[in-house]
Amino acid sequence: MPVKIPDNLPAAGILESENIFVMSETRAAHQDIRPMKVLVLNLMPNKIETETQLLRLLGNTPLQVDVELLRIHDRESRHTPLDHMNTFYRDFEQVRHKNYDGLIITGAPLGQLDFAEVEYWDHIREIIDWSQQHVTSVLFLCWAAHAGLYHLYGVERRILASKRSGVFNHRRSLQHFPLLRGFDDEFFAPHSRYAEIPLAELQRHPALNVLAESDEAGAYLVLSKDNRNLFVIGHPEYQKSTLGDEYQRDTLAGLNPSVPLNYFRNDDPAQEPVARWHSHGSLLVSNWLNYYVYQLTPYDLSDMSAKTPWESKV
């Protein structure tokens, strides 16, 4: 089934060339189908690249998904044309009165700042609090996962001595969770971050389940026990070139970055990267949409109550 996107969104042409099923708003208006309504709060600098990455994953699911894009502020971006932002993005005041099946909050290049130092931290907290009453399930990615774990559950992170960048092997920590259906015993996922939350702290938290972890990268999939909030401490949405692009950017900026581990063939940045996480990323998002959104959300979103769907159905 397709992802429904705004007419003329730049990602459409890229996704169609990859045989990802997307549908314009105009075409979708003639279909009598209740699509899943997913809001994406995009905090990444290159909005168009991140949109494409997320829509690629959403378009691989068997559900029709109606995507809306949300920005954290209306100031001009250095990496995305203002016309693009004004055409395709909504401000929070335009959506705060609405309910959604799902919300995705992306990572952000803020890994070395304390949360209180982030310029829009109060706005992030407001949106997270709003989501707990207006969204069936929330998917937090990388920096957003750390931010959500801190704000909702009081879990502190710590800044690393150097950036953790690379593709790491992970294993399932727990079995028999719908999110993990179809997962191999071990799988790969990319990481690109300056902070971590100690695995032991997450494991002993009474409101959280650690579903997947890595010896090298720590906790990866963390699910709240009420099943409303999924924290993915990594970047399953990254395309093949993204870690390499970040490495080249940091090199040109004189930051002397380490070569991303297990990413370039033979760990040689002169050679081609090896993508080994795309199938996992697609399955992860498909399972989230199916088991934690589609099967639980009300048909009429106006029926959503403060009580989570899981509390009444589990």
TrEMBL record:
<feature type="binding site">
    <location>
        <position position="249"/>
    </location>
    <ligand>
        <name>substrate</name>
    </ligand>
</feature>
<feature type="site" description="Important for substrate specificity">
    <location>
        <position position="192"/>
    </location>
</feature>
<feature type="binding site">
    <location>
        <position position="163"/>
    </location>
    <ligand>
        <name>substrate</name>
    </ligand>
</feature>
<dbReference type="InterPro" id="IPR005697">
    <property type="entry name" value="HST_MetA"/>
</dbReference>
<keyword id="KW-0963">Cytoplasm</keyword>
<keyword id="KW-0808">Transferase</keyword>
<feature type="active site" description="Proton acceptor">
    <location>
        <position position="235"/>
    </location>
</feature>
<dbReference type="GO" id="GO:0004414">
    <property type="term" value="F:homoserine O-acetyltransferase activity"/>
</dbReference>
<dbReference type="GO" id="GO:0008899">
    <property type="term" value="F:homoserine O-succinyltransferase activity"/>
</dbReference>
<keyword id="KW-0028">Amino-acid biosynthesis</keyword>
<feature type="active site" description="Acyl-thioester intermediate">
    <location>
        <position position="142"/>
    </location>
</feature>
<keyword id="KW-0012">Acyltransferase</keyword>
<comment type="pathway">
    <text>Amino-acid biosynthesis; L-methionine biosynthesis via de novo pathway; O-succinyl-L-homoserine from L-homoserine: step 1/1.</text>
</comment>
<dbReference type="GO" id="GO:0019281">
    <property type="term" value="P:L-methionine biosynthetic process from homoserine via O-succinyl-L-homoserine and cystathionine"/>
</dbReference>
<dbReference type="Pfam" id="PF04204">
    <property type="entry name" value="HTS"/>
</dbReference>
<feature type="binding site">
    <location>
        <position position="192"/>
    </location>
    <ligand>
        <name>substrate</name>
    </ligand>
</feature>
<dbReference type="InterPro" id="IPR029062">
    <property type="entry name" value="Class_I_gatase-like"/>
</dbReference>
<comment type="function">
    <text>Transfers a succinyl group from succinyl-CoA to L-homoserine, forming succinyl-L-homoserine.</text>
</comment>
<dbReference type="InterPro" id="IPR033752">
    <property type="entry name" value="MetA_family"/>
</dbReference>
<protein>
    <recommendedName>
        <fullName>Homoserine O-succinyltransferase</fullName>
        <ecNumber>2.3.1.46</ecNumber>
    </recommendedName>
</protein>
<dbReference type="GO" id="GO:0005737">
    <property type="term" value="C:cytoplasm"/>
</dbReference>
<comment type="similarity">
    <text>Belongs to the MetA family.</text>
</comment>
<feature type="site" description="Important for acyl-CoA specificity">
    <location>
        <position position="111"/>
    </location>
</feature>
<feature type="active site">
    <location>
        <position position="237"/>
    </location>
</feature>
<keyword id="KW-0486">Methionine biosynthesis</keyword>
